[in-house]
Please model this.
Amino acid sequence: MTIKIPERGLRIWRFAKRLFLILFFLQLFYILLLKWVNPPITVTQLASWISGHGLKRDYVAMKQISPYPKLAVMAAEDQLFPDHNGFDWKSIEKAMAHNEKRPKKVKGASTISQQVAKNVFLWQGRSWIRKGLEVYFTFMIERVWGKKRILEMYMNVSEMGTGVFGIEAAARQYFKKSSKKLTRQQAAMIAASMPNPKKYAVKPISKYVSIRYPWVLRQMLILQNDPDVQKLIQ
Model:
């Protein structure tokens, strides 16, 4: 026995399939475009502006950023960044085990690549749909952009204070200088705030940042001579 699909159902199916293909190729084009062009705005930046937190940003090329902030964010956020394929599976397993035991104090394990995927293409949140999309975009930018472009994007779109996005805006907000002139200590202070830059202030310096940034400085010393790290920060 054959089941006849109503004409209206066929039209809806064809429309949905066509829409999916259009959206798929549009996002693929956008990923390719952003390999060379900075995003006009992100959902997080737009939300900050709409909510009244402001929007301070100033995209800069990698050569205009001191090596210290690049080294600092890797030391603070993702020390395996030069070596992994976008995901730090051991840290993810540890975070999942921690979250099962302490569900009220959720611990993350996002790599720099995952954070870029979330910040550039998606929205903030912990839904399974968003996490699934984050996996897809992380996979794509690792293969299309490469590590240096991912790090450059991270330095430019990450929130580094309330309404402050990117290392150039952060450097000017906190230290009244360009990101190219940041000292090792200043870079470590900004990186130390990254887990929650709205809560952990750089200036006036919060207790959390004052305790964490010396640790970031020590990690920077350990990482700085790694050849793969050197390729990314120069």
Observations:
- The beta strands are 56-57, 164-165.
